[in-house]
Amino acid sequence: MKSTFATIVHNSFFRTLIEGTKALSGIGLAVLLARLLGPEGYGRLSFAFALTGFASVVMNLGLQITFVRDGARDKNFLRENLATAILLQIIASFIVLFILVGALFIFPSLRQDTLLLVVALFYTAISIIINFLYSSFQAVHRMHLEAIAVGVQHGLLLVFVLFLLFYQGTVEGIMFGYLGA
Q1: What is the DSSP string of 111-127?
Q2: Does residue 1 carry a pLDDT above 60?
Q3: Measured between alpha carbons, how far apart are the two ends of the chain, in Å?
Q4: Is the dihedral of CA 25, 29, 30, 35 positive or negative?
Q5: What burial class does residue 6 get, using C-beta atoms within 10 Å of its C-beta: 0-12 exposed, 13-18 middle, 19+ buried?
Q6: 131 close to 64: Cβ distance less than 8 angstroms
Q7: Nearest Cα to 63, choosing from 142, 137, 136?
Q8: pTM (2 decimals)?
Q9: CB-based burial of residue 90 (10 Å sphere; 0-12 exposed, 13-18 middle, 19+ buried)?
Q10: What is the pLDDT of residues 53-112, one digit of tens each?
């Protein structure tokens, strides 16, 4: 069994690797998309992510922190409550989707970006559920598994978004690339 210091160093190394991967891929992709889409296209994409970002606060339900804290104390907690927590997040995501549909009826100016907003909302919901599943790796100190999963996810994100950018070149196509990754 590893010492506490070795565990801290091991987990810190992989957390740094994870956060660095997220930051570098996000910055690189943002710069590339802003340059290739232009102000109007990148503005539409940013608007969709900003609007669904507000919704993500509701969809998250604070479950990730709870699972890391309680899962680290008791491994059985993860097994017993994982399906319930995912179901709660899916229900919250559908509630937010219905609110978005209502907003589309109330604010006609949003209707031009309906597909973009719906796909962005699905991307946000799936990302929240995936990040929630990553929290189970954190709870059982399996940071190397989380690092591999995040690396693969962000690699796929770059590949899908770049492929759809050069293939279709539309903001909606890029959002489908995010969803595919």
Answers
A1: GGGHHHHHHHHHHHHHH
A2: no
A3: 36
A4: positive
A5: exposed
A6: yes
A7: 136
A8: 0.77
A9: middle
A10: 888 887 777 777 777 778 778 878 877 888 888 888 888 888 888 888 888 889 888 888
CB 146 within 8 A of CB 134: yes
pLDDT digit string, tens, across residues 111-163: 888 888 888 888 888 888 887 777 777 767 677 777 777 777 777 777 777 77
- The whole-angstrom separation of Cα 78 and Cα 76 is 5
d(CA 75, CA 84): 16
Other CB atoms within 10 A of residue 59 CB: 24
Per residue in 12-57, pLDDT tens? 888 888 888 888 888 888 888 888 888 998 898 888 888 888 888 8
Separation of alpha carbons 138 and 135, rounded Å: 5
Tokens of 136: 């189970």
Report d(CA 55, CA 82) in Å as an integer.
22
* Rounded-to-integer distance, Cα 113 and Cα 154, Å: 25
Quote the DSSP letter at residue 56: H
